[in-house]
Write a structure and sequence with these properties.
Shape: globular
Radius of gyration: 18 Å
CATH architecture: Beta Barrel
Number of domains: 1
Number of strands: 5
Strand content: 35-45%
Strand order of the largest sheet: 1-2-3-5-4
Largest sheet: 5 strands, mixed, barrel
CATH class: Mainly Beta
Structural class: alpha+beta
CATH superfamily: Copper binding periplasmic protein CusF
Helix content: 10-25%
């Protein structure tokens, strides 16, 4: 019986972890200042990013997938999601908006 309760706790821990990972990130509006595809970075002037407790500002972000940088250029209005990935503030999703 002890083994069954340990398995139930382990299963519940996995579900809680999965839910935490599935949290949606806030969509933030910004403007592309510069794209540096060679280094996999993008400079954005952006609104506040609530999940990072960050006020609106201009800053350089790492691109989670450098291929996403091909879809934007300086001057584009964008909506993006950012998070801390391996200790670095990273744009994990980006798209142009009107």
């Amino acid at each position: 019986m002890k083994k069954a309760s340990h398995m139930a706790i382990l299963g519940l821990s996995f579900i809680v972890s999965s839910v935490a990972l599935a949290q949606t990130l806030p969509k933030v509006r910004g403007t592309v200042d510069k794209v540096d595809a060679a280094s996999g970075k993008i400079s954005l002037t952006h609104e506040a990013i609530p999940n990072l407790n960050m006020e609106g500002m201009s800053m350089v972000f790492k691109a989670g997938d450098p291929a996403m940088l091909k879809s934007v250029k300086a001057g584009d209005k964008v909506q993006f999601e950012a998070d801390r990935v391996n200790g670095q503030i990273t744009v994990v999703k980006i798209q142009k908006v009107k």
